[in-house]
Specification:
Length: about 625
């Protein structure tokens, strides 16, 4: 249990400087926005509009995108604060290791490895069908790029997908500056295609009178419930902005640029989604939309058949940009886990010339290329959402811990343990004090009485602070348990009605009780000095993180039993890897934990006396 609860220190420049070659600080706000938008806007938006409008939202699709965008913004606010306070590679894995503990951090990192590998492979296999449209149809690709079925193995291989993954891998190995520039160009071209859809579609809509909004069912044909169901579906179109946080160590000014990059990327995505949905739903009645090619078919109904090629170009560009966004974060997560000793040091190597983790990138690319070549990973796509939603949830929990019960002890490296012991011996001698003669006994008694009063006041304050921290930890636990009970009982419709009502009420009471206590008690003063100061501060704490936990847990519970069984197998494998390797090789195995104030004194004295951390 001690191993599971070990927490590491926020990486400072001093700590990272001792770790060898560093990642290149090349990224600015513009490049972060390009990475965020490119990783988020995939080809799904070119299909999702038709499916959600037909089956859930109708003309209210725009509101579904807005509600989903607001829900995604809850996570974005939490990411923005943690990314600016703890600007190191690793994203949610790094934050949970600092705030929650090693066990949870390992599971989050292990889940993110699965997410990015399967996500990249699934995106790559979606490119070849779209490329085939430029050659005349699904079976018209050149032989060396076309899909082929292996008769003895009942497997359809996709050379095009594997080739594209390897090309992206080679580009990422060149350096973060070069890869972010290419991704920026591809993302801008995709945005131009979406702007064409918005502008040309608006012109047609004003010419034809926006027939899609004059249907008999009105603006809410499926009611408010249909609109909310549509929001839950399109929420996954916002997944990807967390890729920005994984590049935190490569940002020139992380305290300023990371929050701006995350917020701007999410705002751009939400605006484009809403504008496209407004136009397409207005051009064609929702019940007449083509669920597979809604945008192309909408223009074709008005005589613009050539627009199909432009929309297909946008889909290919979106997929290529998303492929880069899927492969980019994983080597950095592997590198962060290897730095902490949870994975072999092979993955932590940073190339001296390109200043990127080349070995981790190559391993990631080869694994993703093999999956894309041999496997139809579309049935595994739901597993991608598990990693992302788990990360979103734990980031919100980390915000609550940071504000109400931040770590009050930090691990001391083995190189400074000698300084710690010397400090302890000095404190003991100071407490014993030198022998005093009889002439100073009266003065000493007066001083001791004053010191006793000050010590009593300090002890009273310490006791009150201890009670506040215990109340905060219990309240955060109550919120988490209440959210799980509430969302599970609300989603398990096979349970008897009265039983569901009982558990919903019980979970709701736990949630409200924990939230009420968090609103009542003060936040910890240590939050001001936690990590790097001067960055973004998440607003509306504790309400905003609690809402974030509630939304993401509800989506997690509703992903389906099959998805959870497959993810469960992967997580069990991760548990065994941690038990037999990570637990014993962790960099925190033999460290000594000391109070934060004392650690700063030791670091200061060691630097002045010549110790190297």
């Amino acid at each position: 249990m001690r191993a599971l609860m070990r927490r590491k220190q926020v990486d400072s420049d001093r700590v990272r400087a001792a770790g060898g070659h560093q990642l290149a600080k090349e990224l600015s706000v513009t490049q972060l926005v390009a990475i965020g938008v490119g990783s988020t806007i995939g080809a799904g938006v070119y299909v999702l509009v038709g499916t959600v409008a037909r089956e859930h939202a109708g003309p209210a699709l725009t509101l579904s995108f807005l509600i989903a965008g607001v829900a995604a913004a809850l996570s974005a606010f939490c990411y923005a604060e943690l990314a600016s306070r703890c600007p190191s590679a690793g994203s949610a894995y790094h934050y949970s290791y600092i705030c929650v503990g090693e066990g949870v951090a390992w599971l989050i990192g292990w889940a993110l490895i699965l997410e990015y590998t399967i996500g990249g492979s699934a995106v790559a296999r979606g490119i070849s069908p779209n490329l085939a449209l430029f050659f005349g149809g699904q079976d018209s690709l050149p032989w060396f790029l076309a899909r082929h079925e292996l008769p003895w193995f009942d497997v359809v291989v996709d050379p095009c997908a594997a080739f594209l993954v390897l090309v992206v891998t080679a580009l990422l190995c060149k350096g973060i500056k070069e890869s972010s520039f290419v991704q920026g160009v591809v993302t801008v071209l995709n945005c131009f295609v979406m702007l064409f859809v918005i502008i040309a579609g608006s012109y047609i809509g004003f010419q034809t009178g926006w027939v899609g909004y004059k249907v008999a069912g009105g603006f809410f044909p499926y009611g408010a419930n249909g609109m909310l169901a549509g929001s839950a579906t399109v929420f996954f179109a916002y997944i990807g902005f967390d890729s920005v946080a994984s590049t935190a160590e490569e940002v020139k000014n992380p305290q300023r640029d990371l929050p701006l990059g995350i917020g701007t990327a999410l705002s751009v995505c939400c605006s484009l989604y809403m504008l496209v949905s407004v136009v397409i739903v207005g051009l064609v009645p929702y019940f007449a939309m083509d669920p597979d090619t809604p945008i192309s078919s909408a223009f074709a109904r008005h005589g613009m058949h050539w627009a199909m090629y432009l929309v297909t170009t946008g889909a290919v560009l979106a997929l290529c940009s998303t492929l880069m966004g899927s492969i980019l974060p994983q080597p950095r997560i592997l590198m962060a886990m290897a730095r902490d000793g949870l994975l072999p040091s092979f993955f932590s190597d940073v190339n001296q010339r390109t200043q990127v983790p080349v070995k981790s990138t190559i391993v990631t690319g080869i694994c993703a290329a093999c999956l894309a070549f041999f496997m139809d990973v579309s049935q595994l796509a739901g597993m991608v959402s598990v990693g992302t939603l788990l990360a979103f949830t734990i980031v919100a929990v980390s915000i609550l811990i940071l504000r109400y019960a931040p770590p009050d002890e930090v691990p001391l490296p083995s190189s400074l343990e000698a300084s710690f012991r010397l400090s302890q011996e000095y404190d003991e001698e100071k407490v014993r004090g030198p022998p005093v003669d009889a002439n100073h006994e009266q003065l000493s008694s007066v001083v001791e009485s004053i010191n006793d009063t000050l010590i009593e006041k300090k002890q009273d304050t310490s006791v009150e602070e201890s009670k506040r921290r215990k109340a905060a930890v219990c309240s955060i636990s109550s919120v988490c348990v209440g959210v799980v009970v509430l969302t599970t009982s609300a989603s398990f419709t096979f349970l008897p009605f009265l039983l569901r009502c009982f558990f919903c009420v019980f979970g709701g009471l736990l949630l409200l009780a924990g939230l009420g206590v968090l609103c009542y008690i003060d936040q910890d003063d240590g939050r001001h000095s936690f990590g790097h100061s001067g960055g973004f501060i998440c607003p509306f704490v504790p309400l905003l993180p609690v809402m974030c936990i509630l939304v993401n847990t509800y989506l997690l519970v509703n992903l389906g039993g099959g998805t959870w069984m497959r993810v469960g197998v992967w997580l069990v494998m991760g548990v065994f890897v941690y038990i037999f390797y990570g637990r014993t090789h962790s960099s925190l195995t033999d460290v000594v934990y000391v109070p934060v104030a004392q650690a700063e004194e030791i670091y200061g004295s060691s630097s002045s006396s010549g110790f190297v951390a």
